[in-house]
Amino acid sequence: MQTVFHIQTSGPGLHEFTDEAARFVRDSGIREGLMTLFVQHTSCSLLVQENADPDVRRDLQEFFRRMVPSSDDPSMGWLLHTDEGPDDMPAHIKSALTAVSLSIPVSAGRPALGTWQGIYLFEHRHGAHVRRVVAHLGT
Amino acid sequence: MQTVFHIQTSGPGLHEFTDEAARFVRDSGIREGLMTLFVQHTSCSLLVQENADPDVRRDLQEFFRRMVPSSDDPSMGWLLHTDEGPDDMPAHIKSALTAVSLSIPVSAGRPALGTWQGIYLFEHRHGAHVRRVVAHLGT
Amino acid sequence: MQTVFHIQTSGPGLHEFTDEAARFVRDSGIREGLMTLFVQHTSCSLLVQENADPDVRRDLQEFFRRMVPSSDDPSMGWLLHTDEGPDDMPAHIKSALTAVSLSIPVSAGRPALGTWQGIYLFEHRHGAHVRRVVAHLGT
Q1: Residue B28 burial (CB < 10 Å; 0-12/13-18/19+)?
Q2: What's the ipTM?
Q3: Tens of pLDDT, residues A66-83
Q4: Partner-chain residue, chosen from B97, B102, B116, that has the shortest CB–CB distance to C42
Q5: Which residue of B lies nearest to A14 if distances are taken between CA atoms?
Q6: Predicted confidence band of residue B68 (pLDDT cuts 50, 70, 90)
């Protein structure tokens, strides 16, 4: 069983879609299986992270911003791929450092997440985007 | 088929559980399939790495320690999420930089690992923890 | 259904094998399912990245080269595992920072990649290697 989640973003940061993913699993009627998420872009990524303190998301985003500065930062003067804006090549690098696909077991009809885990799309571009995440649910 | 591995850790580093995973596959009787591992925490992660020279594990841990210092290190003064200890937010960051899920094909009744590959839980916190890894085995 | 791709590399960089993966899916006759790729080595990795501008691949490789320098670089003097050459331990680190497995949904008989996505083996060693990627295709 497959579906596509469309996630609206508006600049860098983590956008949670745990509820949408859990609803897809519930509606399928599958009690035990495996849900795989795959993002069809190379300038954002997928993350399972803590869903309690919002500061965790802010710190994550800030760490990646410092580790991979914009291409107009002097330390990044060696980048070649700059035509699509100063946030584009850093976004590809952040994508390579995180995940394009995630697989989460389904147990008792729900994604088998830990108590504090949420599922996030991690946007790396500055503008507004609609991101496509393909979900596959198997047994 | 699913199970949960409980992995006891006692500080940062790599804890191998290749044998437990191989036993789960063997006991299932499945000859060809796919094993997916998912860790139910956001301050440790999963890794497939070299299982020969222990220095590889030590160097990996040390690289991540240098890349993401404790939040009491002056270079990390910008972190907001520090209430749970100086090792907590760095652990979330290291988790984002590695993997929360791994999928390993099963061939001839065994995980299809390369000659030098082992399966590890990578603990990022300083204290002792019991970590839960959900394993799903499908065909 | 499973197969093994053998990918010849000749030094660090991204080697595309999207066509081989798509052919494996097509030949299987499976219309909807999940393809999982797993690389049987710990000094190279798997990546889904932009397949349009070759500068993206060059910049990715260069970013990782700068982030994890050779072990003969003075900044890496703390590494212990140096017997297998100055590119070996950095390759293990780059492998930990990227992916050993990738799962890509199959829709309408094709890998459900985004418009600009290609599937790559990311070689981290300097010499020539034949790399094994196990592919598992399920429903």
Answers
A1: middle
A2: 0.97
A3: 999 999 999 999 999 999
A4: B116
A5: B96
A6: very high
